[in-house]
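Page 37, continued from 36.
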């Protein structure tokens, strides 16, 4: 089955074709750093991690950009409440966020642009929108996007803008989907903004939330890129507005694939900071959760279905993680690694099909666990062949590079990879960069990435 995703824009599954062969530009809306991220936020970030790991497994060269929203209504409000500077708040929560990402074994993005460092790009986009007549100024120094000037407004979320009353506009970053309105690209300075202010040709102020992501995505990925993700709550107004701004500013299609993950619920209700029913990662750690068991709870459901996170499900996750770790240890003790000749068992193609079908993680996991049971059965009866053992090792390594469920694993570097690494080192010592690059490509094809550091070659699994 070819790789396909449910594209929110088309409301159907669509075969994935990257803009540039073998490469993927991926933008994921990052955290608003006014507070600790909660497990609901991490449901969305974990889905994005799965997507990225799957693309890497399929050997795509992924350029992943995740922004940090460090100026918006919420961050300013929090800094004011705490009587500290904006950066005091945003630096602190950015750092906690990065620590949580690492602890949860998420592959870091290639670039984490911050909104406050991307203001010039936002200003130039707003200038273009003003020049082209898609935006208008107000007396208070604010600039608004005129939604009726963009015929495709509402296409992503299928809203009808004929309900809009002329002149309706909204200053807030988040607002009701039932009342589509002209929205602020730039908010003229107000006393409550304090020192949070930048100069723009039309007056002092600060950017609206939506223009931040339009600017930060195109800065790193170009005006038209492959995939943009977020949670379903980002669809309106945030992503609808991003599309309007970007397409009108550049006259180009903005994003080819929009992927949105459903909500994580808690005890039957929506989880949110404002309702006070949420878990931080630190609280889950105190309850004895491991990163792997959290990963399991978050990935066992399909990303487009609501899932319920529950403390009671901890031991179910722990059991699965333990079963996998036991399987890993068992294969390791049998030196399965040495029997590997790089081929995969038949079950792998079913697993791959399930993952290619819009990341159907529950079905892919079912295929894997069924297969694991069969292999364990064969080992119990002492009827497993060497080639089956080698294939089992390959599948397990590939599986864990996608899901990250196995604890403290140390997948040994196969001999053939070590040999290539040595050959490459020799080429580098002899300044033979062509050979060195060639071997890097060979390693990549075999699922290993090599980075050159001051301490020498650094090898990691894709
Ligand atoms: P924020 O920090 O509020 O900008 O949110 C960061 C990400 O978390 C966004 O992509 C949201 O869509 C997502 N998000 C927030 N709450 C939840 C939830 N309960 N379940 C899943 N995703 C969520
Ligand atoms: Zn965004």
């Amino acid at each position: 089955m070819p790789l396909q995703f449910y594209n929110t824009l088309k409301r159907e599954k669509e075969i994935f074709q990257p803009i540039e062969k073998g490469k993927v530009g991926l933008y994921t809306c990052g955290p608003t750093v006014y507070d600790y991220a909660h497990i609901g936020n991490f449901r969305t970030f974990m889905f994005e991690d799965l997507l990225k790991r799957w693309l890497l497994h399929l050997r795509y060269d992924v350029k992943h950009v995740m922004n940090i929203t460090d100026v918006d209504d919420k961050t300013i409000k929090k800094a004011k409440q705490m009587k500290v500077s904006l950066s005091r708040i945003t630096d602190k929560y950015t750092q906690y966020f990065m620590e949580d990402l690492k602890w949860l074994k998420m592959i870091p993005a290639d670039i984490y642009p911050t909104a406050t460092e991307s203001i010039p790009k936002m200003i130039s986009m707003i200038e273009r929108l003003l020049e082209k007549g898609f935006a208008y100024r107000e007396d208070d120094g604010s600039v608004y996007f005129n939604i009726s000037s963009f015929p495709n407004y509402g296409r992503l979320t299928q809203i009808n803008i004929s309900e809009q009353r002329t002149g309706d506009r909204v200053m807030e970053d988040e607002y009701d989907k039932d009342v589509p309105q002209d929205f602020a690209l730039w908010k003229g300075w107000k006393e409550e903004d304090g020192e949070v202010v930048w100069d723009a040709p039309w007056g002092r102020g600060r950017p609206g939330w939506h223009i931040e992501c339009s600017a930060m995505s195109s800065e790193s990925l170009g005006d038209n890129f492959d995939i943009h993700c977020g949670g379903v709550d980002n669809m309106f107004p945030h992503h609808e507005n991003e599309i309007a701004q970007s397409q009108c500013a550049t006259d180009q299609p903005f994003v080819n694939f929009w992927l949105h993950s459903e909500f994580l619920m808690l005890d039957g209700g929506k989880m949110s900071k404002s309702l006070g029913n949420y878990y931080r990662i630190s609280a889950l750690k105190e309850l004895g959760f491991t990163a792997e068991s959290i990963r399991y709870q978050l990935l066992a459901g399909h990303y487009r279905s609501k899932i319920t996170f529950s403390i009671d499900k901890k031991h179910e996750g722990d059991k699965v993680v333990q079963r996998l770790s036991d399987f890993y240890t068992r294969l390791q003790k049998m030196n399965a690694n040495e029997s590997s000749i790089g081929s995969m068992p038949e079950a792998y193609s079913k697993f791959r099909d399930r993952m290619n079908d819009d990341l159907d993680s529950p079905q892919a996991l079912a295929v894997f666990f069924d297969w694991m049971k069969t292999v364990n059965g064969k080992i119990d009866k002492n009827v497993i062949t060497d080639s089956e053992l080698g294939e089992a090792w390959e599948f397990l390594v590939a599986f864990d590079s996608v899901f990250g469920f196995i604890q403290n694993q140390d997948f040994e570097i196969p001999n053939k990879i070590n040999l290539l690494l040595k050959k490459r080192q020799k080429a580098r010592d002899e300044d033979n960069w062509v050979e060195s690059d060639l071997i890097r490509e060979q390693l990549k094809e075999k699922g290993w990435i090599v980075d050159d550091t001051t301490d020498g070659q650094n090898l990691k699994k894709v």
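Residues 314-333 form the longest helix (20 residues). Flag for discussion at group meeting. Residues 29, 213, 238 surround zinc ion (ligand 2) (CB under 6 Å).
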